[in-house]
Design a protein that fits this description.
The protein is mainly beta. The chain has a domain of 177 residues. The protein contains 1 helix and 23 strands. The strands form 6 sheets. It has a 4-stranded antiparallel beta sheet with strand order 3-2-1-23, with no helix packed on it. The protein has a 4-stranded antiparallel beta sheet with strand order 7-8-9-10, with no helix packed on it. It starts with a helix and ends with a strand.
């Protein structure tokens, strides 16, 4: 009886610890980052997910763009170009403070969430190929050794798979590359072309946009693909384009750059209700939304 009681208590403690660990690992909140031009420069801004409490994170003369959260470093990676044309890759905290970073020589540095690898695109003859470099020893591998366009690679949350675009089939479609199997799978096949994509935080679904170029032309709408069933559902159906999409770390929303009445702003759409929220105020250009997970 005593042994049984001890085992029951031990299992209870283990389950409690696992539950607490899971809750600790999941973000409790989320913030948006994006680029904006409200004068001669492009800078990076941050705000709450409802658009409140906006903060300007970069203030250098020139251009700051391409912000994305690097989980392994708990910072924002972005590109920077000063007024003299000098290009650099920067890393900063969520409050805009500089963080020292190696690997600035990589031309299009997209780090894996675990911090072990980096992806970049490079011209090979007349074609664009995607390379993966091991950050520890700088070994580079061509993941797409086929003469075609390949671009816009996106890491999966577990750093085991990569979404990418390719026109190797004749139209620009979405593909999935799995590192362990070294396999490339075509995920979409439809009208027009796929242009933007983003992973769900659980890694089981992906969002993508498709642009229809033939008449009647249709701008980018957002679709969601279930990776297990390959079922595709359409999330938006609007006369304007939802571009530069980014799935939130909690998983409930997708942020996008929308152009309505000639104004470029950041919007979010809730996955379940399809409720749209305008985040920025229409004063200037806004684009390239991404998210910061908040754990406390």
């Amino acid at each position: 009886m005593k042994t049984s009681l001890k085992l029951t208590i031990l299992m209870s403690l283990v389950l409690t610890a696992c539950s607490e660990a899971t809750q600790t690992d999941a973000p409790l909140n989320q913030q948006l980052i994006y680029i904006a031009s409200r004068g001669n420069d492009f800078d990076i801004y941050k705000c709450n997910q409802d658009g409140s409490s906006e903060v300007q994170l970069t203030k250098q003369k020139g251009f700051d763009w391409g912000p994305r959260w690097w989980q392994a470093k708990e910072g924002i990676v972005h590109y920077q170009q000063d007024t003299a044309g000098n290009f650099s890759l920067r890393l900063m905290t969520g409050d805009g403070d500089e963080i020292p970073m190696d690997f600035q020589e990589l031309p299009d540095f997209i780090a894996s969430p675990d911090g072990n690898y980096a992806l970049y695109t490079e011209k090979t003859g007349d074609n664009d190929h995607i390379f993966m470099q091991t950050l520890a020893d700088r070994t580079a591998t061509d993941l797409t050794p086929v003469d075609a366009y390949h671009g816009r690679p996106h890491w999966s949350p577990d750093s085991r798979s990569i979404l990418l675009l390719s026109d190797r089939s004749g139209s620009t479609e979405l593909y999935l590359y799995q590192l362990e199997a070294k396999s490339l799978e075509k995920l979409t096949d439809g009208e027009g072309r796929v242009k933007y994509m983003s992973w769900a935080p659980d890694g089981k679904r992906v969002a993508f946009t498709r642009e229809i170029l033939e008449e009647p032309k249709r701008d980018h709408d957002i679709y969601i693909l279930n990776l297990d069933t390959k079922e595709v559902s359409q999330l938006t159906n609007t006369p304007f384009g939802e571009q530069e999409i980014s799935w939130s770390p909690i998983g409930d929303k997708i942020a996008y750059h929308g152009t309505i009445d000639g104004k470029d702003d950041i919007y979010t759409i809730e996955i379940e209700t399809k409720t749209v929220t305008k985040i920025t105020n229409g004063q200037g250009y806004h684009g390239e939304p991404a998210w910061i997970p908040v754990y406390q």
